[in-house]
Amino acid sequence: MKPKIIHLVLGKANPNRMNGVNKVAHNHAVHMHKLGYDVEIWGITKTPDGEVIERELPTRLFRQQPFYRDLDPKLLYALSKTPKNTIFHIHGAFIPDFYKMSRMLVDMKRKYVYTPHGAFNKIALEKNKWVKKIYIQRYEKTMLKDAYKVHFLGQSEFDHIDKIIKLSNKVIIPNGQSFEELEFDYHKMNRKNIPVFGFCGRLDLYYKGLDLLVDGFAAYVKKGGQGEMWMIGDGEDRTTLEEQVKTHGIQDRINFMGARYGKDKLNRIANMDVFCHPSRSEGSPTAVLEAAALGRPLMVSTATNVGQIVEANGCGIHLHQTTAKTIEKACFDFQKLFESHQSESMGSCARKLVEKEFNWFSISNRLIQIYEGK
Q1: How many domains does the chain have?
Q2: Burial of 227 (C-beta count, 10 Å sphere; 0-12/13-18/19+)
Q3: Which residue of 99, 206, 276, 285 is 20 to 30 Å from 266, comparing CA positions?
Q4: What would the pLDDT profile of 207-248 be if each residue is shown by its tens digit?
Q5: What is the pLDDT of residues 332-349, one digit of tens each?
Q6: In the sheet that 39-45 helps form, which strands lie side by side, from edge to edge?
Q7: Same domain for 247 and 158
């Protein structure tokens, strides 16, 4: 008998937001539904009466509670009505409501799979370090230990968790990419015949390595590099990054485009010549897979957890060490590839890689096999 599957998220699982966790939960739910499973999305949010996007499966919203209060009574009631073979998939770490939910599931003898989405990467744990250490000892360790499976998106987090707690219930399955979401009418944007380096995502200076990207690109420009850079996205570090660009005196070479969504965002990525993601810490970056599926060559760090497969499949450059110097060199290397048109074949390889290794149906099916104990 097939299990009922409930994906639990903080928010409303809207795939059109910069929050990658919501996008991943949405895609798992949609593709599992298409594979013939009974699937729901449960969202915990401060605005449970708000609108949700249309989906072919139910989305149920419950009110987020302060730390000192019990779960939303409506959530507890809904939980009591779930069949015994229900599998809960919890997306996100350091969320008090999720810990409370896990305790209820253990009491009710319901299985849950727990995906921290990169929260236990070494560098991610450095932010609010002592608060997280206390929270892990008091809550997260119990939640990790009692999970049916702990699902990691990449090797770095899979390995680092051993420094916190030894787990025999951990697995690695990366994120996927839907080609259906990439359907749009391409049009060539007005630009010079020079290489366009690009980034799309949350403008988080440290975790996304954007400080290094700006420093490396600035060095490339000052030594005669001809390219320009487009930065799509927004975030609390945008002002700092813009000041960094001004300090280097390259305001005319880096274009901050702000947050973009839907077809507008896709068309801008498709007009880039190389997609850059020099992260210091990641789970499995959805933006990289999206760009690869759009046929963009990649410049990625080891921390993205896709560097080795990108290098092995001729999709771009793997930054084995992420520094301004290695980024500067990679920019010059890509300029040569652009000028010789070799970057076009890299883009084709990137798309083929996503089709083969990161198709959402195959990724979601791998998780279903975990749910069913296969």
Answers
A1: 2
A2: buried
A3: 206
A4: 899 999 999 999 999 999 999 999 999 999 999 999 999 999
A5: 999 999 999 999 999 999
A6: 59-63, 39-45, 5-10, 87-91, 111-115, 149-152, 170-172
A7: no
